[in-house]
C-alpha cells in the first residue's frame, strides 16, 4: 500500500492542531487571559513593592507601572473596571495585613488617580504612548509621568502616611521618588521587554547575538561585583558601584532603549535584591536610608542613560530615513525619461541617473566631481562652466545648451537646466537639474530654417519677375511709340514732297515719348535704392 503524500500528512497535522487550539483563538478567551495576566502581574508587583516595608515608601512602587500599562492598552470606557479590579488585590493581599483600611483606600485612590491622569496625558501628547521614539517624546513622558503626576500624588501620599506620625515633607519626598523612579525605570522596561515583544522581531545576526551575550555576561558579573560582594576595603566600596557603568553605556549605544532598559533592570534587580538581603553598599542602613540611597543611585544612572539611548535611536532613524529617501530618489531618478544630475555646495557633481550614464557611456565615478565636463565639446566647455558659475553666484536658474559626447562617440546637443535646492532649515544645499537631448529638435529647426530661406528666395524671384514684367510694360510703351513715329517719319521723308509740318509733329512726339521713357527709368532707379 502506497504511503500518503507528505503534504497531505502536514495538512492533516495542521488541521488537528487547529482543532485542538480552536478554543484559544476565541476573542473571549484572549480577553480572559489578558485580565488574568493583569491580575497576576499587579498582585506580584504589589507584593514585591510592599516587601521592602509596610510603613515606609518603597524605592519602587511597581503597581502603578502595571496599572498604567493596563490603562494604555485598554479603551478609556473600560478604565473604571481596570482600576476597581486592583482594589481587592490590595485589600486581600497578606502583605497588607495590619494596615488600616483607611490607609489602604487612600493609597488606592491616589495611585489610581495618578495612573489615570498619566495615561490621559500620554494618550493626548504622544503619537505612540507605548514607545519613546524621540527626545521630545522622552521629555513629555518625563514631564508628566516622572515629574508632574508623581509630585501631585506625593501630596496625597504624605497626608495619608500622617497616621504613622511621619514627617510630612520626608514622606512627600519618599513618595515622589518612589513613583518617579518607577515610571522612569520600570515602566519603559515593561514597554520594551514585554509589550513590544522583542523576540517577535527578525532574528539578529550571529555577531549581534554574540555581542548581546557578552554584554549580558558583563552586566551580571559587574552587578554582582558592585552590589553583592562583601568587602571591608573602603576604597573598593566607594568605586565598585561604578563598575556596571561601561556596560550600561555599551547597552545604550549599541542596542538603544531595548538594551538600556534591560541593563538598568539588571542593575535594579541586583541592587534592590542585595539591599533586601542585607548585602552590598546599601546594607546596614535604615529602611528609609536604604530606599533614599537606592533612588538617588538609580536616578543618576537611568535618566542620562535613557536620554543617550533615545538620542542614538533617533539619530539612527533619521539616518535610515535619509538612506531610504536617497534610495527612493535614485530609483525614481533612474526611471524618469530625463538625465538627472545633483550637485553639492562645492559645485561638484554628486549624482547622475542611469539615463545620463547610458547617454554618455560613462560610469558614475567618472562623472562625479568635475568629471561631467570631460564629455562636453571643447568649444562649448568654457561657456557652459561660466554660465553655471554665474547662476551659482546668483543662486538663480541655470540654463544652457551645449554639445556632449555620446556613448557612440558623436556629439549631441543637450539643453541643461537646474535650480538651487535648500535644506529644511533653509540652508543652500547645491543644485539639482536635468538635461534633455535636443539634437533632433535643433536638426528640425535647421531644416525648417532652410525651407524658410528657400521660400523667401522663391518669393523674391516671383517679386522680381513681376517687377520685371511691369518695367518692361512701362518702358515698352514709349519705345514702341518712338519706333512707330520714327518709321512714319522715314516713310514721309522718302516721298517726293515731304510734309514738313507733319514731320515736325512726328519729331515732337518722339521727344515726348523719349522724355516719358526717361522718367520711367528714373522712377525705377529710385525704387531700387
Please explain how this structure is put together.
By secondary structure, the chain is an alpha+beta fold. The protein has 16 helices and 5 strands. The protein has helices at residues 6-20, 27-50, 62-73, 79-92, 101-125, 135-160, 168-195, 206-227, 234-239, 245-277, 287-335, 354-360, 364-367, 378-394, 439-493, 500-528, and strands spanning 339-343, 349-352, 398-405, 411-422, 428-437. It has a 5-stranded antiparallel beta sheet, sandwiched between helices. The termini are far apart.
Key terms:
529 residues; rod-shaped; alpha+beta
- H/E series, N to C? HHHHHHHHHHHEEHHHEEEHH
Spatial arrangement of strands, main beta sheet: 2-1-5-4-3
Largest sheet: 5 strands, antiparallel
What do the pLDDT scores average to?
83
Q: Number of DSSP strands?
A: 5
Q: What would you report as the Rg, rounded to the nearest angstrom? A: 49 Å
Low-pLDDT runs of 5+ residues are: none
Total helical elements: 16
Cα-to-Cα separation, first versus last residue: 117 Å
Helical residues, percent: 55-70%
> In percent terms, what proportion of residues is strand?
5-15%
Question: What is the SS-derived class?
Answer: alpha+beta
Give the overall shape, derived from the CA principal axes: rod-shaped
Write a compact overview of the structure shown.
The chain has 529 residues and is of the alpha+beta class.
